[in-house]
Amino acid sequence: MSDKTSAAISEVRKDWVAEHRDLYLSSGGAKGHIMDITAVGGPAFGTHCLIKYTGRKTSKVFITGLCYGVVGGELVIVASKGGADHHPAWYLNIREQETVDFQVATEAFRATWREPEGAEREKAWAHMVDNFAFYGDYQKATDRTIPLLMLRPLESIPVFKAEDATGMRQY
């Protein structure tokens, strides 16, 4: 998929993404964790987390909502960017950090992250495509290998608040 096509998809979904993030944050995670995403080819009970990270160029703090799965006791997120030909900014930012913060429902954690390889990656990828079929379509749309990140909690931290973010996600 071209970056132009990806940008068009992002523009259509921008309002939903912002509304979902605001709902998740304003409810302290009580709402927004489980969402019906059948309209975009996902499941009726799609699981969503928030990630909080620092921009590598701006040093601003961003909070982004993403679908997630759990494999081997680790949270798995997918750097798909809708099948665009380049990686999402959040992924590039996390790669510059030793840890990342994430929130699942009403609990938040500081975590280490890693990229699975080989058979482990194949297992995690299959799990994510099984739960979120659109990831398979996104991979077919691009020549890049869509990265996966696996997050392992280190410690509990306070749930995220809208005011924690000093930057807004660019679509």
Automatic annotation (TrEMBL):
Catalytic reactions on record: oxidized coenzyme F420-(gamma-L-Glu)(n) + a quinol + H(+) = reduced coenzyme F420-(gamma-L-Glu)(n) + a quinone
GO molecular function annotation: coenzyme F420 binding; oxidoreductase activity
InterPro entries hit by this protein: F420H2_quin_Rdtase (IPR004378), Split_barrel_FMN-bd (IPR012349)
GO cellular component, one term: plasma membrane
Cleaved signal peptide residues: none
Superkingdom of origin organism: Bacteria
Family: Belongs to the F420H(2)-dependent quinone reductase family.
PANTHER family referenced in this protein's UniProt entry, alphabetically: DEAZAFLAVIN-DEPENDENT NITROREDUCTASE (PTHR39428:SF3), F420H(2)-DEPENDENT QUINONE REDUCTASE RV1261C (PTHR39428)
Name of protein: Nitroreductase family deazaflavin-dependent oxidoreductase
Organism per entry: Novosphingobium endophyticum
